[in-house]
């Protein structure tokens, strides 16, 4: 029976925990896979910090322990996300890798972007015998998260992922781990200002929590940097009204704006040829930055993008959960914010990160 790369790497970790230190050739024999494949898997696991390579041998990272003492051994962790297929895939990957390294099992639930689905999905996950729950509630911009008061009555510890509870809500007392999207927007604005732009347009979705944070970050950033604010171009129907958005951007360019930040990658990639059809080339006539960096590097031209630390968010959320389930149940409530990076590519002009390297 063919096994997936994920299953094969989980088996590699099990063997290394069992033996402590093992030669790659012996590891390949134990796993029943060709040495060249095992070397690739070991390299990937080492890049993720889950293994350590030295002189043809493989071991756990320094300070790690054997499987018998793994902090999450036999723990079952549920994870509720609003969607798969793009942004949250990387978050899930971070959780999954950390769970595998700790000997825990991950159970996934998906609630579409409708808040009414959250509770039903969580009930289904709880039936799996969870020890803890990582959750991304469907809190829509401007909605009353009081409708999610059931969160306080969960029978297991919960960590919010990529969500910030308002201070007055009961959910504010939960652990949370997420990206600082407002800082991410500030990075984009600073980069455009450094290129000489005195005004930056924002075209953004309005249907998600991240979109709300991006919009708030834009309002704060233009004031902080002293650049001229522009009316936000609303993307009401993602993927369905790109031509209308391109028309609005063209009007702004006619008024002197030469830079735009677009949330998210899908919208940004769709806009580039539509702008070109209107006589605007990226980056010659318009500097463009995308927000999310899921597919931005694959665009033509490759798009400069704000890259939230999606995988690291998942890893940090799982590790925080295991700390609370382990020897630190009295750990103070943690609200952890990880800073995005700006990946500089061709869509703003100037030199890209690749060219600098």
TrEMBL record:
Keywords: DNA-binding, Transcription, Transcription regulation
Superkingdom in the source lineage: Bacteria
The keyword Transcription appears for this protein: yes
Metal-binding in keyword set: no
Pfam families attached to this UniProt entry: HTH_DeoR (PF08220), Peripla_BP_3 (PF13377)
InterPro entries from the UniProt entry: DeoR_HTH, LacI/GalR-like_sensor, Peripla_BP_I, Tscrpt_reg_HTH_DeoR_CS, WH-like_DNA-bd_sf, WH_DNA-bd_sf
Organism per entry: Kitasatospora atroaurantiaca
Molecular functions per Gene Ontology: DNA-binding transcription factor activity; transcription cis-regulatory region binding
Lineage, highest ranks first: Bacteria, Bacillati, Actinomycetota, Actinomycetes, Kitasatosporales
Name of the protein in question: DNA-binding LacI/PurR family transcriptional regulator
Domain HTH deoR-type: residue ranges: 5-60
């Amino acid at each position: 029976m063919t096994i997936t790369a994920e299953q094969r790497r989980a088996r590699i970790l099990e063997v290394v925990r069992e033996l402590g230190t093992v030669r790659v050739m012996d590891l390949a024999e134990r796993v029943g896979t060709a040495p060249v494949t095992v070397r690739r898997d070991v390299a990937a696991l080492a890049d993720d910090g889950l293994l350590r390579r030295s002189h043809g041998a493989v071991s756990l990272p320094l300070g790690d322990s054997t499987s018998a003492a793994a902090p999450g051994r036999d723990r079952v962790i549920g994870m509720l996300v609003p969607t798969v297929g793009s942004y949250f895939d990387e978050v899930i990957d971070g959780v999954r890798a950390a769970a595998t390294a700790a000997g825990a099992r991950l159970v996934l639930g998906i609630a579409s972007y409708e808040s009414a689905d959250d509770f039903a999905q969580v009930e289904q996950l709880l039936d799996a015998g969870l020890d803890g729950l990582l959750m991304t509630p469907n809190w829509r911009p401007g909605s009353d998260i009081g409708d999610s008061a059931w969160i306080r009555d969960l029978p297991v510890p919960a960590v919010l992922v990529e969500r910030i509870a308002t201070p007055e809500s009961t959910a504010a007392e939960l652990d949370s781990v997420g990206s600082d999207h407002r800082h991410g927007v500030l990075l984009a604005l600073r980069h455009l200002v450094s290129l000489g732009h005195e005004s930056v347009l924002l075209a953004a979705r309005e249907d998600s929590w991240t979109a709300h944070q991006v919009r708030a970050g834009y309002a704060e950033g233009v004031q902080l940097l002293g650049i001229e604010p522009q009316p936000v171009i609303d993307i009401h129907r993602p993927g369905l009204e790109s031509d209308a958005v391109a028309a609005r951007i063209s009007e702004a360019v006619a008024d002197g704006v030469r830079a735009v930040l677009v949330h998210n990658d899908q919208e940004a990639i769709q806009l580039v040829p539509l702008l070109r059809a209107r006589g605007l080339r990226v980056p010659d006539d318009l500097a463009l930055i995308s927000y999310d960096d899921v597919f931005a590097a694959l665009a033509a031209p490759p798009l400069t993008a704000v890259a939230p630390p999606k995988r690291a968010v998942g890893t940090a959320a799982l590790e925080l959960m295991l700390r609370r389930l382990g020897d630190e149940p009295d750990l103070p409530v943690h609200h952890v914010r990880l800073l995005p990076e700006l990946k500089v590519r061709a869509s703003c002009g100037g030199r890209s990160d690749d060219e600098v390297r």
